[in-house]
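Repro:
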Amino acid sequence: MTVTQSYFVNLIKHGINGERINYVPQGLNYKELYKLCAFNSTSVIVYKAILGVSGELPQDFFKYLEKLALYHVKKDIQSEFDTQKVITALEENGLKYMPLKGYYLKKLYPSTDMRYTADCDVLIDVLQIKKLHEVASEIGLKPHHFDEHHDVFIFPETKTLFEFHKTLFVGKLENYFGIGNKGFEKATIKQGSACLYELSAELFYLSMLAHSAYHFSAGAGVGIRHLTDVYLYKKHYNLNEQYLNKELEKCGLLKFKNEFENLANYFFNDIEPSEFTLKLASHVLSSSLHSNEDLIDASSVANKLNDGGVKTAKKKAVLKRIFPPKESMQFSYPVLKKLPWLIPVFYVVRWFDVLVKRPKNVKKIRATSVVKENDVLYMQEINNGLGITHL
């Protein structure tokens, strides 16, 4: 880690434990530090941790950091108000729901604004979707984006987004969490509530890890906030590790869990790192919250790598972009679930759509074909080390 990266991690460590840091290192790159805060959505954590040495900082840097942090504090307050409005409406109208991810995780931080999010994720019952749309309209939510797996609404005045998920996971984990009831099958209704469902502490943690693993797989990396979630969750809950590991084994995520926890312990508990943990630490610190844009193409090629070598893997990755698998086509064009024999026709529809409306996707295909071999081998090591090549 660079001096700046090491200091950034130490600021995060102090911040999530409700502490202030008492030193400023020599050789600190303030521009890099600000970018790390912005790209990882950790400005409030860093701001509160660094307050104790604010007089030793360049005033321009501190002013910009403070402005970003206070903006996130304001958005968090508004988001909390909007969330309670939506949940109250769901309860009063008898709509089955289960808040996800940030709704619970932000409460583990010293203050909720430390885990500011731009949206609120809620699992809903697909059998009540028509009623949900009626209730959303009544409380002022406007349609933003609809697809097969979630309907997204927005409060126009406050810009708070609500993603109403119709299934807890898409892909391999959908089978684990339940297809028939789309995620509610492993949940129980909260005592004292008519409609609020919750996962056990172990299954919620599993869903957290799965969320991080899918982002890492799709985006070639995730930022440090995924690690603060892991650290604070394990600190707060006494989990049944034997049961948890058994369930993670079923999902193919046990290796990911172990390596992710090793990294969290290295960052925040000063545990001696392995060689792979150090490499993973460097990778996470070069990533933004949900991706590493510079290595996405290399990661997609790496997951196709086998005895045929990098050249063959590139061809496979390019072909997958041109001819997405059946599951991806059915996600983009739901009619194909009933009429799968029309997939060849919809490949033509998709190509026309890409050429006319999404020319950037053509650039992505070209980028995949010219990705550097060293980057592919590097991402193969990272993905293999995390055990996520199957995602």
